[in-house]
Specification:
The protein is of the alpha/beta class and 203 residues long. It has eight helices and nine strands. It has two domains: 115 residues, Rossmann fold, CATH 3.40.50.2300; 79 residues, Winged helix-like DNA-binding domain superfamily/Winged helix DNA-binding domain (Arc Repressor Mutant, subunit A, Orthogonal Bundle). The relative contact order is 0.12.
Length: 203
């Protein structure tokens, strides 16, 4: 899963970024509301962890812009504002969850996992996918019927700090395709050599 973290405290931002990466998430981070909005508008993220009080553009204004543009990203608000009215305002502005500072990292991680949680089955069989395989499947399904390049996949699965090996996408596609196989049925992922991959939903 790919997470965008927008938090203006360098210390907290660094701690959360490190912890989320250790937990297996790809993370992009920003300390400014306008930069955070630009990132959310120009890249696909599964979860946005959003501080309320931000320089440049406050968190709720950022969130409202994304919802007005119908951006389908799950949003967790972080804030010291703990009044019921503030929680209501945050949720009514389009947030999926709300966490008051100070908080335990374990709770934040549990909430992120809950926002990301998806069950993958084919023909009633629960598939045991790694985090990368799930990220790849979700990305391809969201763009089913369209050709997706290797570069697009790398940009979604990996964050700015990591350099994927040259064959990692091909290897992940191969493993995912094998796990999705059902005897007697056509494969769901088609490779167009030199161009990319396409998810083809069964008829």
């Amino acid at each position: 899963m790919k997470v965008l973290l927008v938090e203006d405290s360098p210390r907290l931002r660094g701690t959360l970024e490190k912890g989320l990466r250790h937990a297996g998430y790809a993370v992009d981070a920003s300390g400014d509301g306008r930069d955070g909005l630009w990132r959310a508008q120009t890249s696909d993220y599964d979860v946005l962890i959003l501080d309320w009080m931000l320089p440049g553009l406050d968190g709720l204004s950022l969130l409202k812009r994304l919802r007005d543009e119908e951006r389908d990203v799950r949003v967790l608000i972080l804030t010291a504002k703990d009044a019921v009215a503030d929680r209501v305002m945050g949720l009514e502005s389009g947030a999926d969850d709300y966490l008051v500072k100070p908080f335990a990292f374990a709770e934040l991680l549990a909430r992120v996992r809950a926002l990301c949680r998806r069950t993958v089955r084919r023909d009633g069989k629960l598939l045991d996918l790694t985090r990368r395989e799930f990220m790849l499947l979700e990305y391809l399904v969201m763009r089913r019927g369209a050709l997706v390049s290797r570069a697009d996949i790398e940009a979604h699965i990996y964050d700015e700090s990591s350099e994927p090996m040259s064959n990692v996408v091909d290897s992940t596609v191969y493993r995912l395709r094998k796990k999705l196989e059902v005897e007697g049925q056509p494969p769901l992922i088609r490779t167009q050599r030199g161009m990319g991959y396409m998810f083809e939903a069964p008829a």
